[in-house]
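ok so I'm stuck.
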Amino acid sequence: MDSREEESEHENEAPSFWTAERQRADARRRRRMRLRLLEREQLKRFHARFRMRRELFTRILSDMCSNNRYFTQKPDCTNRLRHSPLQKVMAAIRVHGYGCCFDSADEVIKIGGSSIRWATMEFCETIVRVYKEQYLRDPTPDDISRLLSENKARGFLGMIDSLDCMH
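replied:
not stuck anymore, here's the structure
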């Protein structure tokens, strides 16, 4: 038997466990790299995509991570890291900002629809819990008088209940 016959004999063999494991690890690494590139691309066009300043987004992201364990990146049962906090918050904000369904955001963010649904529910609960005292309160009499004077200057007298005239 010459060396060519030996090589062709080895080519027909099934790949070993270590070869298959290396291929799976390479595929995971390539997926993580594509995901990082996607996240960088999302951040480049940040204001156009999310309609908020990047500083506000990073503040919300850090508040989500520090106040809700769901927004920390954890390994699954096979010890592979699951979705990043950035992916989860981006998905939740995208669903709220565009009013789209959960399944339509999964193509962009690369998370399944059920994971986006869960991230959106956790996001809403955490937003209310963290920002309720500061931002989600009833207006004080000083707030109402300030809003009325601002609206009067704009030409909208007495328009305190219309959200269209409050920005």
